[in-house]
Amino acid sequence: MNTNERFQNVSVLGAAGKMGSGILYLNTLYISKLAINPENCNKCYTIFAIDRSQEQLNQLLKFTKSLLLKWAEKNIIWLRTMYAERTDLIENSEIIQAYLQDAMAIIKPSTRIESAFDSHLIFEAVIEDMELKTQILSTIKLNNPHNPWFLTNTSSIPIHILNHEANLEGNIIGCHFYNPPAVQKLIEVIELKNGNSQLSKLVYDFGKDLGKMMVPANDIAGFIGNGFFMRDLLFGIEKANQLKETFSFAESILLIDTLTRDFMLRPMGIFQLMDYVGIDVCQFILNVMNKHLQENIESPLLLELLNKNIKGGQLSDGSQKPGFFTYTKGKIETVYDYDKGMYMPLNELSEKINSHLGTLPENVSWKSLSRDPQKKEKMSQYFSLLAQSKDNGAYLAMEYMKQMKTIGKGLVKQGVTETDENVNTVMITGFHHLYGPINEYC
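The chain above was modelled as a monomer; its predicted structure follows.
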């Protein structure tokens, strides 16, 4: 069986979730292009979209169709070549509707794990829980007679652990999509040592066809993205703790968040990013890494916040749950003060924080530079001026950036990945940073 034949029957586990829905769309897009190719007219293609809630699966179909429609409208010329023999299709709208009908017919929603027992490829995107993943993968392995290949979207769990615990005989690969998978360019690929080379080729061919940027990571807990992010957040917490003698808890959190966003030209401050991901998710990833790494990676603060039911994360409509901050239309409104057990209005804290940090050396921001064709030159000038500034914010930012460089270099030294460039690519592409942590700015 060649790799394209494996795509004739695919299952996506956790298909209605935040990550699974995007992975289902990418599979539908990839497989529908195979299915409508006249060369494959005698082949049947099926994707089982598997999740627990039929209601969510119904919503998933609407979501997938809306994304396929946008893609079809942008690729009408190619679609015309695929439907050239259909003389009944004349207008662009007719071709698009025919494509949508053909593509959506491939998807078979299911609430039963048994649907995966006939699939040749299994894309796993359930929650980041090793026991659950192991249980599901092993169940499919035991009951599927086709020796299926598994692609797991885990962002932290070592692949060799899943392989061993689920007895997958090397037919598993880490295929870590970034959120949201439908638009994020990055996929971290984590191969087993002496794993299935054909499976690796399938993943890279799949990603290339979809226009993804594939970055290899070695099978070490956390991989590149979370390997960096978890150490970044721990350093941010450490710096906030060092400010407690001068600032309240809320002020310390706001100061470091402002520093890492505005002074370091990031899209979010480190504490807002924790809220976005979910404090509970961050804690789970830390637990996984702490279990499998020899260094101590943990945060008592996150545990204490979770004990107070402060979890962060997002609601189903995309709005932000309370975490370190509360939000109105995506903007920070209040800051949690652990000592007082309440949220403090942002406007009561900002003046003191801004006064302590000082002013930016130039009027630039992540947003203003993100699409600026001269961003490299402007960043170089900005960080040169930042290094010369005597303001507290400039000093703290340069200190923070030096630690980020150390963390990035550490990932290469520890064997998480082979090159500095891979670290920088993940942070720039996956986390939308303007620059990688391993740079000459500091």
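The radius of gyration is 24 Å.
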